[in-house]
Write a structure and sequence with these properties.
The chain has about 375 residues and is mostly helical. The chain folds into three domains: about 1-85 and about 335-345 and about 350-370, no CATH class; about 90-265, no CATH class; about 270-330, Alpha-Beta Plaits (2-Layer Sandwich). It has 18 helices and two strands. The chain has helices at about 1-10, 10-25, 30-55, 55-85, 90-95, 105-115, 130-145, 150-155, 160-165, 185-200, 200-205, 220-245, 250-255, 255-265, 285-290, 295-300, 315-320, 335-370, and strands spanning about 270-275, 325-330. It has a two-stranded antiparallel ribbon. It is globular, with a radius of gyration of 21 Å.
């Protein structure tokens, strides 16, 4: 009972903050809106409570992450259909800069902006859905706070390949070449250079797997047909098939250019995962179970995962000796539980602030469909 009450008290500030962020400071009106909002607040905080109470972070983080990604897709597609009547964008949307800005685009706009003082993306800087300025500010906040935990807690796409990676109990493909960890860096260099040269976001235009579940160019030419085939093929292979077969987040770990760039922010973020080399028994459970392939024998010897670590907590949950732990840079040994709670607070609040609205809206659209037969 004492543990239950302590855990409940610990999450009280998280409950208040998540309530404010998910509601955006204004309580919803109407039956379905209120139900959706209440369900979001309850689900988010129930998962956070279970993380604190059971000390099994990844199990409940993953459930929240996957569910939120599903509701995001429903929310985004519903929004596009409501605004445009279709998932495809129109010429008017392009000309009027009404294309929502995705965080992945950040990798392609920074260098062109530095040289041309122009954002090479047809989105509004301050107005509308997913404005460029708002998304860049959110990304900068993540750089100085949660680092690449963005990919384990805040990416509205990441829950998709994570969801498919949970389907099988054991991987069919058990060995992945270590050289694949450099592939996202190669993709990042490719899109940075090509975007700077062509002055267009080439990843979005040609190879983004998530165009299959968000928005896409109208299929009106040979080029658009080729693009559509590429988008669908990459989505099926990287987000569905390979995660199922490997139990890894293959899109995020081995292809995403944003993940490659965001990894560098782990140098800046105060939060990290540490591995106590004196406690480690070398069983290798963390190596085989890391969803991003961020742990190797060399990492165990070094006492920390690679920079690509998503801070998902999988290694912390499964370590039989308690060698892996959430940590805050500069904090001395002996404060593991405090570091864990503070780390989870940072990750959870960022997640609630960034994804809570999509969760609520996606759930509202589903409830509206059952009530009226329409998502919009």
């Amino acid at each position: 009972m004492k543990k239950l009450l302590t855990s409940a008290l610990i999450i009280v500030p998280a409950f208040v903050l998540s309530l404010l962020f998910i509601s955006k400071g204004k309580m919803p009106q109407g039956g379905l809106s209120l139900i959706s909002f209440s369900a979001a607040v309850i689900f988010f905080n129930s998962m956070f409570f279970m993380m604190i109470y059971t000390k099994k972070t990844d199990r409940y983080r993953s459930a929240l992450f996957i569910t939120t990604a599903f509701f995001f897709v429903i929310s985004f597609i519903g929004h596009m259909i409501e605004e445009r009547g279709s998932m495809s964008f129109t010429d008017d949307a392009l000309l009027n800069c009404q294309i929502p800005f995705c965080h992945i685009v950040t990798t392609m706009v920074l260098i062109p902006f530095a040289f041309t003082k122009t954002i090479i993306f047809p989105g509004s800087l301050t107005q509308g859905y997913a404005a460029v300025g708002a998304m860049i500010i959110i990304w900068l906040l993540s750089v100085f706070t949660i680092g690449r935990a963005w990919c384990g807690w805040a990416c509205f796409f990441g829950g998709l390949d994570e969801g498919f990676s949970k389907i099988l109990n054991k991987p069919v493909i058990k060995h992945i070449s270590p050289s694949f960890k450099y592939l996202p860096v190669a993709v990042l260099l490719l899109v940075v250079i090509s975007s700077a040269y062509l002055l267009q976001p080439t990843y979005c235009s040609w190879i983004c797997p998530f165009k299959a579940v968000t928005e896409y160019e109208p299929i009106t030419s040979t080029a658009s047909i080729i693009k559509t085939i590429i988008f669908l093929s990459l989505f099926i292979i990287l987000v569905i098939i390979l995660p199922i077969l490997t139990k890894k987040r293959t899109q995020c770990a081995f292809f995403c250019p944003f993940g490659a760039m965001q990894s560098a922010s782990n140098y800046i973020s105060p939060f990290e995962i540490k591995i106590d080399v004196n406690k480690c028994c070398g069983c290798g459970l963390c190596i085989t179970n890391c969803p991003a392939a961020s742990i190797s024998k060399e990492n165990l010897k070094a006492g920390a995962p690679a920079l690509t670590c998503l801070r998902c907590g999988k290694c912390v949950d499964i370590c039989p000796k308690g060698a892996a732990a959430f940590h805050i840079k500069g904090v001395e040994a002996g404060y593991d539980e405090l570091c864990r709670v503070l780390s989870l607070y940072a990750y959870f609040i960022f997640m609630a602030a960034f994804l809570g609205g999509s969760f609520t809206d996606g759930l509202h659209k589903i409830l509206n469909f059952f009530a009226t037969g329409s998502f919009i």
